[in-house]
TrEMBL record:
Stretches assigned to coiled coil: 35-62
Example GO molecular function: DNA binding
Keyword DNA-binding annotated: yes
Keywords, alphabetical: Coiled coil, DNA-binding
Domain of life per record: Bacteria
Protein name: DNA-binding protein H-NS
Stretches for region Disordered: 71-96
InterPro entries given in the database record: H-NS-like_N, Histone_HNS_N
Domain DNA-binding protein H-NS-like N-terminal: 6-79
Length: 96
């Protein structure tokens, strides 16, 4: 089954029913079990991602607080970037 057909089945209940008619009850139960496992895995991945984002936000807040307590700003920590010259130098340099 292609990704497009799975999306089509997921979007339309009638399409899902038509696809289900082609399967036996045993196959339908197995499909429901597999889909349940996939949903559980996706939920776990999403929960882990949210936990990682929350941890990252907490660490960032702690670092900002420490910077403020030390009387510094983010600009103090980031060195100034050298200014780049734009364009190309002239081919013939005038010595005048």
């Amino acid at each position: 089954m292609s990704n497009e057909s799975l999306e089509r089945i997921a979007r339309n209940k009638n399409v899902a029913r038509a696809a289900a008619r082609q399967l036996s009850m045993e196959q339908l139960h197995k499909l429901a079990e597999v889909i349940g496992e996939v949903i559980e895995q996706k939920n776990d991945e999403e929960r882990r991602r949210q936990e990682e984002e929350a941890l990252k936000a907490r660490k960032l807040a702690e670092i900002r607080e420490q910077i403020n307590e030390a009387g510094l700003s983010v600009d103090d920590l980031v060195p100034e970037q050298p200014k780049r010259k734009r364009g190309r130098p002239p081919k013939k340099a005038d010595n005048a």
